[in-house]
Amino acid sequence: MEKDLAYNDITRQIIESAFEIYNILGFGLKEKVYQRAMAKAFDSKKIVYTKEQYGKIIFQGAIVGRYFIDFLVDSKIAVELKVRNELYNQDIVQLLNYLKSKNLRVGLLIAFTNKGVKLKRIVN
């Protein structure tokens, strides 16, 4: 089944980066700190990304929603980081809306919690 997952190699590297960050920094820092650490991890692995990528939802020619995603990796994977103990439906909806707005297929929702890293892989 793992071979069938879209973008398996790059998503594995993203997830490994999150666990490396958690193992070094632990829990309880601000989200921006984890974002900076993730950018540093991506740089060291030569992962191509853009930070705080903008997306919009258009309905009948008007912008009806705006979204910023923490990272757009390799122009195809949206990555949203959270610092909290649970992943909420609103987080999943936020990421799914971003995927739809950019016509992307895969997103990763990564939470740094007091018990480790939680993640959810979202497919559009």
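[next item in queue]
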Amino acid sequence: MKDGRIPLDTNLIERLLRPVAVGRKNVLFFGSENGGRTAATLYSIVQSARRNNVDVLPYLTDVLRRLPAITSTGAPPDPAALDALLPDRWAAAHPEHVLAERMEESREAQARRRHRRAARRLTAT
């Protein structure tokens, strides 16, 4: 392969999918289809928070405390109120819970990948 823009490994994707693969057997013990849907929703929320470098415990605690007030009126929930609970927007409102060391690790890894790709492009030509 001569195109240096295409990564040769899939380690990042495999690491991101690992919790899903590990939890696959646990799906058998949720008890009902509704329990499985709830677990899938929680998995998605937790992974989104991790992907946005948010400390998961304070995030979930705050979101699970605020969510009933948003959805209990009987009317459809306000989309703006729900959007404020998304991990990236929540992190902007609560910067004390953003894991700065993880952000730095991500930046460093991205810089290393760019450097390796540039080196591959140079050797391929």
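[queue empty]
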